[in-house]
Amino acid sequence: MKDGESKYAYKKRTAWELFSKQQLTTAFSFAEGYKKFLDAAKTEREAVEVIADIAKKQKKKVIINQGKSAAIIIKGKKPLRDGLRIVISHIDSPRLDLKQVPLYQDSESHLALFETHYYGGIKKFQWVVIPLALHGVIVKKDGKKITFTLGEDDLDPVFSVPDLLPHLSHEIQDNKKIDEAIKGESLDIVIGSVPARGDFKEKIKVAILEKLHEEYDITEADFISAELEAVPAFKARDLGFDRSLIGAYGQDDRICAYAALEAILDVKNPEHTVLALFVDKEEIGSEGNASAQATSFLRSLIRDQDANVDIDGVLLTSKVISADVSSAVTPNYTDAFELKNASSLGNGVVMSKYTGHGGKYSANDASAEYIAEIRSLLDKAKVPWQTGELGKVDKGGGGTVAKYFSRLGMDVIDLGAPVLSMHSPYEVTSKVDLYASYLAYLGFFKS
Asked: 37, 273, 379, 402 — which has fewest CB within 10 A?
């Protein structure tokens, strides 16, 4: 004990202190699989496919909903009426979605572009002049589905949103508020410039349409029934001289999704029935039939285990971890955080009693009893953990899927890894926090 420090005081210790040398080696190794997951699963559909593929290799069944959410459930020793242990994460991330009629030619710049509508909370200026890849599906009128991925291979072309040069931006951008300098309607993606030969009014647009039809069997009308997403064309990389961090797109919330996936695949003969849920649409309020609010999917999973069980009774006795990320203290902007109650990289998995904003509005607020239970579980499993909240009171806020599950009567708490530069095209996490999250979910499944 240090001089002047009470043995009864709460002391945050980093994961670097708490993990053994062997655990640190394991954490770094664990991150290699995670980086591959990030590169292969940049959209919710791709994440479901990768999750199913990884689970299949370990002979685990995956239940898929709408192609955009998934579940893995393992029957426990105790009867279903004693409740489930559920870890729920989301697999969607902020991005640029193509509009239904996206293609146009700008005659003044002599370029063809796609119009977009941004998805989720972004800083719009972060999405200009970076390389973008296009991912998604096009479904034709006859039901034929075309899977589309372009911009990830080193030999692929990439796409980009142009920006105004600094020599001309003073009146148009520089004197405006940062959230007004780039308009949502200006996040259009450059896709080509070569004109078609012939007597056409919009020769570049015609040339693009001809190329799309020739190479992908796509017509302009097919975009109406498509889901195409523009995402950063970056690969997941080690960050820092010591390679302790990971830089990549989409780590909110795929860091928790990957940790939960690996945890449930490592569970053997659990006491309670365990369930890992991977859901869509969290970034836009969990609306839709593949989201956390689509509780019919959850109910069907329980019914499949026992057709005669009282589902509401099972829900009331179940316990849940909302596996979602927390904001890490950001260098140069520490005044946005109340540092005693803020999380930071390298300090382990983050326990958030509440999220929400403006007086805990629209938040789950976990009970003291459940927090004590989770504290005990983490300490027993020797998992590095910390507390966290989303910035100072009245500074902002945000939410997770926790509130939707608490409405069903279950104990719920947010528990996930801290993320630096959250919602940007290039988020940063710590390898030890990833591994601590995995250990936390594994311990919870075993409880």
From this structure: 379
Task: Provide the token pair at 208.
Answer: 């693009």
Q: Is the pLDDT of residue 399 over 60?
A: yes
**pLDDT band, residue 2 (cuts 50/70/90):** low
Rounded-to-integer distance, Cα 221 and Cα 229, Å: 17
Element (H, E) at 274: strand 273-279
Q: Residues 6 or more apart from 191 whose CB is under 8 A from it? A: 103, 112, 113, 114, 159, 208
Give the residue carrying structure tokens 């689509």: 294
| Contacts (Cβ under 8 Å, ≥6 apart) of 246 | 31, 34, 35, 38, 236, 237, 238, 239, 428, 429, 430, 431, 434
Residue type at 143 in one-letter notation: G
The conformational region for residue 178 under phi > 0 = left, psi -120 to 50 = alpha, else beta, is: alpha
Structure confidence by residue, pLDDT tens digits, 413-438? 999 999 999 999 999 999 999 999 99
- CATH code, residues 95-232: 2.30.250.10
The tokens describing 256, both together, are 């928790």
Cα dihedral sign for 234, 439, 436, 403? positive
Q: DSSP assignment of 181-223, as one string?
A: HS-GGG-PEEEE-PPPSSS-SSHHHHHHHHHHHHHH---GGGG
CATH 2.30.250.10 domain span(s) along the chain? 95-232
Q: Where in the chain is the domain with CATH 3.40.630.10?
A: 15-93+249-446
Is 15-93+249-446 in CATH node 3.40.630.10? Answer: yes
Contacts of 319 (CB under 8 A, 6+ apart): 83, 84, 85, 86, 370, 373, 410, 411, 412, 444
* Rounded Cα–Cα distance for residues 326 and 333 (Å): 16
User: What are residue 242's phi and psi, to 5 degrees?
Assistant: -90, 0
Orientation of helix 368-380 relative to helix 431-446, angle to 10°:
110
Structure tokens at 395: 């500074």
Contact (Cβ atoms closer than 8 angstroms) between residue 386 and residue 351 = yes
Question: Would you list the DSSP string of 291-332?
Answer: STT-HHHHHHHHHHH-TTS-HHHHHHH-EEEE---EEBPPTT
- In this predicted structure, the answer to whether residue 6 has a pLDDT above a threshold of 90 is no
Q: How far is CA 27 from CA 4, 20, 30, in A?
A: 34, 10, 5
* Tokens, residue 205: 């647009």
pLDDT, tens only, 164-193: 889 888 888 888 888 889 999 999 999 999
Q: Is the pLDDT of residue 12 over 90?
A: no
